[in-house]
Amino acid sequence: MSNTPPLLRVQGLSVAYDRTEVVSDVSFSLPRGGSLALIGESGSGKSTIARSVLRLLPAGTARARGVVEVGGTDVLGLSERRFRPLRGRTLGFVPQDPANALNAVRTIGAQAQEAAALTGERDARARRELVLETFSRVGLREPRRVYDAHPHQLSGGMLQRVLIGLAVLPRPALLVADEPTSALDVTVQRRVLDLLTGLRADLGIGLLLITHDLAVAAERAEQIVVLRGGRVQESGPTAQVFSAPRTQYARALQADVPALNPDRHRLPLPARAPAAAAPAGAAPKIEVRDVVKSFPGAGAPAVDGVSFSVAAGTTHALVGESGSGKTTTVRLLLGLDAPDTGEVRVAGERLDGRSHEQLRTARRHLQLVYQNPFTSLDPTWRVDRIVREPLDRYRVGERAGREERVRELLARVGLDERLARRRPSALSGGQRQRVAIARALALEPDVLVLDEPTSALDVTVQAGIVDVLVTLQRQLGLTYLFVSHDLALVRQFADTVTVLRAGRVVESGTVEAVFTDPSEEYTRALLRAVPRPLGVVPRQPGAPAPAPAPTAG
Amino acid sequence: MDRGYLGFAARRVGQALVVVLLAYVVTFVVISVLPGDPVTNTLRNPENGFTEADVARIVAYYGLDQPVLVQLWESLSRFATGDLGVSLRSNLPVSQTIGDVLGSTAVLAAAALAVAVALAVLIAFGTQYLPVRAQGVLRALPSLFLSVPNFVIGLVLIHVFALQLGLFRVIYPDSAWATSFAALALGIPVSAQLAEVLTAGLDHESRQEYASVARSRGLGRTRLLLRHLLRPSSLPVVTVLALTVGELLGGALITETIFGRTGIGSLVESSVTTQDLPVLQAVVSLAAVVFVVVNLVADLVHPLLDPRVRKPPTRPSAEREVLAQEVSTP
After folding, report:
1. Which pLDDT score, from 0 to 100, does residue B226 have?
2. Closest by Cβ to B305, choosing from A101, A105, A522
3. Are A104 and B217 an interchain contact pair (Cβ–Cβ within 8 Å)?
4. Are strands A479-484 and A35-39 parallel, antiparallel or unpaired?
5. In what side-by-side order are the strands of the sheet with A174-178?
6. B189 and B145 in contact (C-beta within 8 Å)?
7. Any CB–CB contact under 8 A between A521 and chain B?
8. Pairing mode, strands A206-211 and A174-178
9. Neighbours of A381 (CB within 10 A)
10. Which residue out of A63, A105, A161, A520 would a mutagenesis test of the B interface target, given it has the greatest number of B Cβ atoms within 10 Å?
11. What is the pLDDT tens value at each position of chain A, 553 positions in all?
């Protein structure tokens, strides 16, 4: 052979768990020092491919066929003993969820020593220096403290920096990053991606990036492979796949990315719910005034003088990083906690200082959709019982009438009637979140509090949920309080926005005003965290939006 | 050692003391409500040869002419100072009676515990090393051990090794051989629970993401097992281990009978049949103390094995500080 073999060549790779094939005939290759993104929704087989390359598939159940060559060596054929020297030294791995990727009962330093040992350094003190140096390199500002800490003492962003550091420390030729930022805040996400791509350039490491976010893939990789159902849908240089997608599926993926389609859900004003067009000066549906809430033991108040109001039939977004006070504000609004000072009014009535019974009545008009549909539904109940529960609790109508109402609610959120007898474990994440929305709507509330309703879901599934929410708002005149850290999604979905930081309001106003002309540097920093794919500018208002693709929830 | 842990340890020791005292009180009450008057029956039994003066002295010593509550208080204060009273049968101090047999039982229990832990570790590690197909046999062992009572194991061992092979003499049970076989009989059923918990723990931990990540750093199976998986898997094992001590004490009674050993078990048996209440009271209290101390040790070890229990998470602000930097230098 005249030319050197590519860093990674995957040829006709198929992987089956027991007898179910989850990856079929996948081929791609990555040159030395290059970057390639595998993109697709959950179940597309992208993580399975990553684990085949790393040979981390569960032993006994998974079977991989085909060719995976690293630097010309077929790694699938190697015995574990022959493959082990490649681990860490040639193939580095950055996992998805940093919180579970380190041993919780050992110090970071003890685990870092394992990575440092791969360099062949014999002296433990020299290895420690190497680790501390790497920690500084990945932007950890107190390397010594991190070295001695246990994983639970660090934030998710810091842990991911540690993991990236451990992966690059032995200078591998290829780094496999499996959704390295999906468990992190957007702002942290951007910095971690910057770090990853920066190191790649500095050290000449090849990057195999696995993601469900087309915007991230396009921003960070030179080549893209689009996967669906374990098969390659489309592949090629990023610019080509991105600006001229050939397949229907790639086009749909692109249309679902909020960052690329800021106006997808925005309608001309007359078409909005009648309530939204209510004359200015009408009483706001939600009014939060100067609320302060401290928790014993914590230093600064969790919420410190927050005020905002939401007009009926509109969507207001609360935006901020973890710890900014979003969740506390929501708890105050729902009456789950009482503010120290200040007041909360919903539909003109004060919520604080009410008795338990009165709160129960008020809550009928105020419902919550939780962040994580995988934990918010009782796994032992069937869908119809979950949705009917609020009706039973408040004794709404006859029993037969309630059954009918459940069917109607499921239809409203776009769920097939046949799913009513299933348990949550037999539903996808998107379907579960639709069930949660149906349950929240059961009592015909005026206000829905949406606490990061799509952050646990794929981009395509997220688009389907947002479609449902927008349609429901239009049909029922609902008022939404939408909590999110995803600014691209906020831009698509909300009318007005309040930016929170460390319990205080940084900036608030209409989404248009805040996003096009932010007055605070913090808001600008948040906006910078929205992915900007290579050379692709989000469509400006007025430009024709692509037709929303049909998506399976 | 940080102050949080010392505070936790102090509270836990306090609780243990309360439990021991309560166990003593409950035993005392149960014994005192038993029908009949075994004390005076025993004392006035002509075979024991007490004179009326002796009887009066002993009755006064135990305050048996006093109301029950006063008796309880007296007995409790003696217990607190380490005075366990005098055996009604042998007229020897109870502490001496127990001391004579305690060593033999302690050796047996310790040996049985060692057998149990060794077997459990062998089984659990075996499941991690063997290929999936061969694991089945090993995984079935714990339920087999659990379903065979320890006296059956003891009888089989005696039959095969003492009677058929003549390896050890049943009538001279204090040889090392005899002790190891008794320990085997006592330890095998106890090992079952430990093996199951440890195997389940290793299975669970090896499926965690951190195990994959550690493997991606080139760790071999043995290092992964010893450095990463063993410690988190042993957390529930420590708890179960403490609970099995109760089982060892109960099992010792049967095992000692079968193997003809003198020990706490045979002492309990004889003191029950002769209604030697001070001995009984002392043995039950001793069992409570052992059980409480072992569980106390398990509770104190737990935070040392798991740092998440030891310290509350300190929420770092570094992440936000970085953003603050980014903001201040646009």
Report:
1. 92
2. A105
3. no
4. unpaired
5. A91-94, A174-178, A206-211, A35-39, A223-228, A231-237
6. yes
7. yes
8. parallel
9. 14
10. A105
11. 446 789 999 999 999 988 889 999 999 999 998 999 999 887 788 989 999 999 998 877 888 999 999 988 899 888 888 999 999 999 999 998 888 899 999 999 999 999 999 988 889 899 999 999 999 888 888 899 999 999 988 888 889 999 999 999 999 999 999 988 877 777 778 888 888 888 888 888 999 999 888 888 888 899 999 999 899 999 999 888 888 888 888 888 888 888 777 777 765 443 444 444 444 556 788 999 999 998 876 678 889 999 999 999 999 999 988 778 888 898 888 888 888 899 888 888 887 666 777 777 777 788 889 888 888 889 899 999 999 999 988 888 888 889 899 999 999 998 988 888 989 888 888 899 999 999 999 988 999 999 888 877 888 888 888 989 999 998 899 999 999 888 888 888 899 999 998 889 999 999 989 988 898 888 888 888 787 765 544 443 333 444 444 444 3
Topology of domain B94-273, CATH: MetI-like fold (1.10.3720)
Out of B209, B214, B216, whose CB is closest to A54?
Answer: B216
Q: Which two tokens stand for residue B208?
A: 């965690």
Across the interface, whether the CB atoms of A92 and B216 are under 8 A apart is answered yes
CATH topology of domain A8-257: Rossmann fold (3.40.50)
Domain ranges of chain A: 8-257, 283-355+482-531
Element (H, E) at B101: helix B94-129
The amino acid sitting at B297 is: V
**Domain coordinates in residue numbering, chain B:** 3-80, 94-273
Asked if B82 is an interface residue toward chain A (Cβ–Cβ < 8 A), one would say: no
Task: Spell out which residues of chain A touch residue B232, defining contact as CB-CB under 8 Å.
Answer: 103-105
pLDDT tens by residue, A429-439: 889 999 999 99
**Touching check for B326 and chain A: CB below 8 Å?**
yes
Q: Among partner residues A85, A100, A323, which is closest to B210 by beta-carbon distance? A: A100
Which residues are paired to A209 by β-bridges? Answer: A37, A177
> b vs e for A7-16, b when ≥16 Cβ sit within 10 Å of the residue's Cβ?
bbbbeebbbb
Query: A283-355+482-531: same fold as A8-257?
Result: yes
User: In this structure, are residues A429 and A42 in contact, taking their beta carbons and an 8 Å threshold?
Assistant: yes
Beta-carbon separation of B327 and A522 below 8 A: yes
CATH class of A283-355+482-531: alpha beta
| A59 vs B: CB within 8 A | yes
Selected for mutation to probe chain B from A53, A114, A142, A166 (highest B CB count within 10 Å) is A114
Asked if A72 contacts A7 with a C-beta cutoff of 8 angstroms, the reply is no
Amino acid at A258: P
